[in-house]
């Protein structure tokens, strides 16, 4: 049974493990293995700081195991504070099972209870068609593209697709 809850400091090691696993397995994240230098303490501090600044981290649990996470970071600048950006990661064995959708729906429900959040934003590689379909299904709309923003080691490019969902409170 899948359960979505807010992350705690003690979840840092499992979140970090998922992040490392995803970075090593696919090409949908900006940092490469060689560039990713986050340790458990840094991950723990990021979770605490993000929460203190109006953001939230959710985890998806299957039994006692964390199988996915979503981090929403609220913009701290006055003119952008009504917006926030999210990123998420799901273990390979749990993809295509609705985990991402459940995490996103939890974020949307949470954001409706937060003072002043009006817009949830994201950036997604144009090559990540599965994720784009999930975002569109939930109601996110493309707002722009950074053309050829991502360059892969083999010389291929991807656009950074900018998407957003406007929250009705």
Automatic annotation (TrEMBL):
PROSITE patterns listed in its UniProt record: GNAT
Keywords recorded for this protein, A-Z: Acyltransferase, Transferase
InterPro entries recorded: Acyl_CoA_acyltransferase, GNAT_dom
Family matches, as SUPFAM superfamilies: Acyl-CoA N-acyltransferases (Nat)
GO MF: transferase activity
Annotated N-acetyltransferase domain residues: 2-168
Enzyme nomenclature, EC number: 2.-.-.-
Protein name per Swiss-Prot or TrEMBL: GNAT family protein
Species whose genome carries this gene: Bacillus bruguierae
């Amino acid at each position: 049974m899948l359960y979505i809850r807010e992350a705690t400091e003690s979840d840092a090691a499992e979140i970090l493990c998922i992040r490392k696993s995803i970075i090593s397995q696919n090409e949908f994240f900006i940092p490469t293995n060689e560039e990713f230098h986050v340790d458990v303490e840094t991950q723990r501090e990021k979770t605490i700081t993000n929460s203190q600044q109006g953001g939230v981290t959710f985890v998806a649990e299957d039994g006692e195991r964390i199988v996915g996470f979503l981090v929403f970071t609220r913009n701290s600048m006055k003119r952008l504070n009504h917006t926030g950006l999210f990123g998420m990661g799901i273990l390979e064995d749990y993809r295509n099972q609705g985990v991402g959708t459940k995490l996103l729906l939890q974020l949307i429900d949470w954001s409706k209870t937060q003072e002043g959040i009006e817009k949830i934003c994201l950036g997604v590689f144009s090559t990540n068609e599965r994720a784009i379909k999930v975002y569109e299904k939930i109601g996110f709309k493309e707002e722009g593209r950074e053309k050829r923003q991502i360059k892969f080691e083999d010389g291929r490019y991807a656009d950074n697709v900018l998407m957003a969902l406007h929250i009705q409170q």
